[in-house]
């Protein structure tokens, strides 16, 4: 995800337009669902906007798609190496995210991020699709999920339903962590349509 080549704004522009059209949503309806102004959405689809973490997560929530469906491009199969220097950082009010890789396995899809919560900062999320997994590497991280607080140190893990309101706070220095977002494969925009149910024959 997010390797050199296309910028975040270019990828978001193409994928947002495609996602909105596949969901059959007008700009006005997407604006209502995401709480993002129609003019801002128009700019984002034109590749002229300046997307933040908050914007992308709001769109993910409104469109009910994984983050990577908005930020990724089709990648060739086979081994993939992602260099930190080649990855464009997605910035939020308190967090810097580097999207590293999307992994599909056994009916699940995972997005892997290098996540840094800036010292003294807090990042709030109203919630989005998927299950969120965070493993702290350095620093102390405060995590609030639906009003419940936990504190994590290096090596600690937390997982929760990402649809719940949640927040990350750097309690000690800049917090380095690995963020995994987990989805069902059928939540992705490119997922093959499900087979129609077989009708039971009545005797």
UniProtKB/TrEMBL annotation:
<dbReference type="InterPro" id="IPR011051">
    <property type="entry name" value="RmlC_Cupin_sf"/>
</dbReference>
<protein>
    <submittedName>
        <fullName>Helix-turn-helix domain-containing protein</fullName>
    </submittedName>
</protein>
<dbReference type="Pfam" id="PF01381">
    <property type="entry name" value="HTH_3"/>
</dbReference>
<feature type="domain" description="HTH cro/C1-type">
    <location>
        <begin position="16"/>
        <end position="70"/>
    </location>
</feature>
<dbReference type="InterPro" id="IPR014710">
    <property type="entry name" value="RmlC-like_jellyroll"/>
</dbReference>
<keyword id="KW-0238">DNA-binding</keyword>
<dbReference type="InterPro" id="IPR010982">
    <property type="entry name" value="Lambda_DNA-bd_dom_sf"/>
</dbReference>
<dbReference type="InterPro" id="IPR013096">
    <property type="entry name" value="Cupin_2"/>
</dbReference>
<dbReference type="InterPro" id="IPR001387">
    <property type="entry name" value="Cro/C1-type_HTH"/>
</dbReference>
<dbReference type="InterPro" id="IPR050807">
    <property type="entry name" value="TransReg_Diox_bact_type"/>
</dbReference>
<dbReference type="Pfam" id="PF07883">
    <property type="entry name" value="Cupin_2"/>
</dbReference>
């Amino acid at each position: 995800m997010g390797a050199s080549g296309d910028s975040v704004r270019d990828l978001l522009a193409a994928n947002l337009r495609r996602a909105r059209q596949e969901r059959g949503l007008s700009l006005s309806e997407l604006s209502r669902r995401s709480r993002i102004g129609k003019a801002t959405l128009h700019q984002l689809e034109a590749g002229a906007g300046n997307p933040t973490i908050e914007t992308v997560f709001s769109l993910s929530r409104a469109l009910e798609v994984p983050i990577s469906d908005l930020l990724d491009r089709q990648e060739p199969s086979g081994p993939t190496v992602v260099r930190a220097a080649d990855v464009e950082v997605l910035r939020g009010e308190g967090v810097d995210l580097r999207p590293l890789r999307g992994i599909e396995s056994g009916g699940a899809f995972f997005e892997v991020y290098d996540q840094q919560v800036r010292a003294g900062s807090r990042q709030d999320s109203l919630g989005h699709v998927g299950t969120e997994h965070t493993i702290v590497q350095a620093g102390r991280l405060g995590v609030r999920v639906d009003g419940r607080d936990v504190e994590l140190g290096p090596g600690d893990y937390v997982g929760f339903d990402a649809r719940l309101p949640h927040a990350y706070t750097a309690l000690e220095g800049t917090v380095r962590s690995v963020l995994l977002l987990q989805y069902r494969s059928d939540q992705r925009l490119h997922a093959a349509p499900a087979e129609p149910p077989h009708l039971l024959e009545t005797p």
